[in-house]
Design a protein that fits this description.
Layout (H helix, E strand, L loop, with lengths): L6 H22 L6 H8 L3 H7 L3 H25 L4 H16 L8 H9 L4 H23 L6 H18 L4 H16 L1
Helix pairs in contact: 1-4, 4-5, 4-7, 5-8, 5-9, 6-7, 7-8, 8-9
């Protein structure tokens, strides 16, 4: 009889599988990646994968939730380095610009997955909405410290820059949105 899998091993396997799923789903799309490919690339037996995530949908949701935490924490850490509240707002667009210029950038993972599966999966749609709500709240909190009336427009500039960069492959969308955010901040101060 094989030895029982420890919690530590289970956590390692889960993390490795989420790493593989995130890379493949983001680079190629969820529907283009089958469970056999996830098995082959992760090196985990299919039975083990299904013990960790009973459905592909549950794997997608877990991947989106983990990516959300990491993505928003990275943004928060970046802007926290900037001492001036107004400059922190603009630093958000600098952070977006770095992300947009990363090799393999394919736009917003949440919008991509929602476009593929959101209409047919309430769980995935909920994970996408949770990310979008959390990002909205993060931007609004950042901007409200400087110019409360500019919070919603600046949020829309950030979301718009993400879409433009993803669709057009244009990392300069962040700099353009930054210019718009600066103008809004100037107009409200």
């Amino acid at each position: 009889m094989p030895a029982a899998i420890t919690q530590e091993q289970q956590d390692r396997d889960r993390g490795a599988l989420l790493d593989v799923a995130e890379h493949l789903f983001y680079s190629r799309g969820v529907q283009a990646v089958g469970m056999d490919e996830l098995r082959a690339v992760s090196g985990l037996p299919l039975k083990r994968i299904y013990r960790l995530f009973p459905t592909k949908e549950s794997l997608v949701v877990a991947m989106l939730e983990r990516r959300d935490r990491r993505w928003r924490e990275s943004l928060a850490a970046h802007v926290a380095k900037v001492p001036d509240a107004r400059e922190r707002v603009l630093a958000m667009f600098d952070w977006l610009g770095v992300w947009f210029a990363e090799p393999g950038f394919r736009g917003c993972a949440w919008a991509n997955v929602h476009g593929e599966l959101g209409p047919s999966s309430p769980a995935i749609a909920a994970a996408v909405r949770a990310h979008k709500r959390a990002f909205h709240d993060q931007v609004v909190e950042l901007v409200t410290a400087v110019a409360p009336s500019a919070a919603e427009p600046i949020h829309l500039l950030a979301e718009g820059a993400i879409m433009v960069a993803g669709v057009h492959g244009d990392p300069t969308a962040a700099a353009t949105a930054r210019t718009g955010a600066r103008a809004l901040l100037d107009a409200t101060s």
